[in-house]
Design a protein that fits this description.
TIM Barrel, single chain, 477 residues, 10% helix, 13-stranded mixed β-sheet
Length: 477
């Protein structure tokens, strides 16, 4: 026989409330399932003033300390109710034993209107025998029989386990339809989807587990987390916790990638610096001015790296697709990996052996040759300063493209392709004139013209990006 206990918690938060509010719940022995629902008021505010927005999640009796094993799920502001029992849970939450002790419903009031925020949380504790335990099905982290080659993949994707509207099966199908070889699961602040992906991968699609860590001072991707692992997000830049969590990701074999660093929404813009980053997402979804700013900042960091002794930071591009009509694989990364496995793909990303494509119809082969030697993307062609070298880019799949060679001086050559969208473009130079060279392939402007920048005057009116390479470095360090 089962019976239930009900409880309602109400309260009010003023402007300036803590980032996270912890509501204790006493869970006695014999509870089979916890159900939680919540609501909060949304008073009208003046234009330009932030209104109320409040996230929700839960921790169990193991506690709420940063990185605690007590984490049991998070749905942000995407859901108004959830449940947990031993055998199943609402997407975003972790099924497992419901043990006695003090649990905590966590509210995240990331926007509070001047009038304040009034909330109501309703709890139902259902007693009875627990259901059969949940069995996770994690995806394999390698595809057997693969070797060195160029592999395409989207490293930033969401499902119903956070704020996406696609089921994991729909995301996997979308990745296949986009011509991808791999994808990374990066739901916000939870690992709950990891245990669902197992049957959805296969010899034609590697599914890598990860998380988008959504802090109040920017979002970052923790790519390649061991299946089931979770990274905490409850800190700001001023708290000094990011560096430790970045190191923890590295210890677990993952990589750290700040996401959409110029995102204009509250809490999205990146404020933690790049010292712990392994790459940076410079292109997020359809090309916008935010991406233009990110690429410009990234290029400035490349210049700083060749000027000093700091390592350079590779670029990534990902779709960040949540739901229809957002396109999985727009854009995606094309990486030169030793095999199709999580560790090899992430090693290629961290080394910058990759370029970014808007779709699988776009092809880019970019090399630099000199003195009988050839360097590929992410490599260094270590030759004397005055040795003649030639950068060569072979492009297909971008009709009427504008192909740009860029160095630490800026744009050094701009060439247009015809309506066939295929061609080979070359640029001769020496290491004394260019510390690195990279390629951008752009569409025409909306009015159908390539602009008036010319070879020595960068065109600020260029159209959206179609392909973007990481650099090839020139000369001896």
């Amino acid at each position: 026989m089962q019976h239930a206990g009900h409880q309602t918690i109400t309260g009010r938060l003023a402007t300036g409330a803590a980032d996270f509010v912890y509501l204790p719940i006493e869970v006695p022995q014999g509870v089979r399932q916890i159900d939680v629902s919540y609501r909060y008021d949304k008073p009208a505010v003046a234009p330009g003033v932030l209104g109320n927005s409040c996230d929700i999640g839960i921790f169990d009796q193991r506690g709420t300390a940063l990185g605690s094993d007590g984490f049991r799920g998070w749905s942000g502001g995407f859901r108004t109710e959830f449940f947990i029992n031993a055998g199943e849970a609402t997407p975003g939450y972790l099924p497992g034993p419901v043990r006695a002790g003090t649990w905590y419903v966590v509210l995240g009031p990331y926007q509070v209107a001047p009038q304040g925020l009034t909330y109501e949380v309703k709890l139902t504790l259902t007693f009875g025998a627990p259901p059969a335990p949940f069995t996770p099905h994690y995806p394999p982290q390698k595809v057997a029989g693969t070797g060195r080659g160029w592999y395409r993949g989207d490293g930033h994707l969401h499902t119903v386990h956070s704020d996406g509207r696609r089921l994991p099966a729909e995301v996997a199908a979308g990745a296949r339809a986009a011509g991808l070889d791999f994808m990374v699961s990066t739901d916000h602040n939870t690992s709950s989807s990891h245990a669902i992906w197992g049957p959805l991968g296969g010899p034609d699609l590697l599914i890598i587990t990860g998380e988008e860590v959504t802090t109040r001072n920017g979002h970052y991707l923790a790519l390649g987390l061991p299946p089931g692992d979770w990274i905490d997000w409850r800190y700001r830049s001023r708290d000094g916790a990011f560096d430790e969590f970045a190191r923890e990701i590295h210890r677990r074999g993952g990589v750290v990638v700040p996401a959409h660093p110029y995102c204009p929404y509250v809490g999205c813009a990146w404020k933690f610096g790049y010292e712990q980053a392994d790459a940076v997402e410079v292109w997020n979804g359809p090309w916008t001015g935010d991406d233009e700013s990110a690429v410009n900042t990234w290029d400035s960091m490349l210049v700083a790296s060749v000027r000093g002794s700091q390592p350079w930071l590779p670029a990534m591009g990902n779709s960040d697709a949540h739901s229809v009509p957002q396109v999985i694989g727009l854009p995606h990364n094309v990486v030169l990996a030793e095999r199709l496995s999580a560790d090899a793909v992430l090693a290629a990303v961290s080394a910058g052996r990759s370029w970014i494509a808007e779709s699988s119809t776009v092809s880019l082969d970019f090399t630099v040759t000199g003195h009988g030697r050839t360097a590929q993307i992410g490599d260094r062609l270590s030759l004397p300063r005055d040795e003649p070298i030639t950068a060569v880019a072979k492009i297909s799949g971008v009709p009427n493209a504008v192909v740009r060679f860029l160095t630490d001086e800026g744009q050094v050559q701009q060439t247009s392709l015809d309506a066939g969208g295929a061609g080979t473009v070359s640029w001769p130079t020496t290491p004394s004139l260019a510390a690195y060279v990279r390629v951008e392939v752009r569409h025409l402007k909306a009015d159908g013209t390539p602009g008036n920048g010319g070879a020595m005057g960068p065109d600020l009116q260029l159209g959206p990006m179609a392909a973007l390479s990481n650099p090839i470095f020139l000369g001896r360090r």
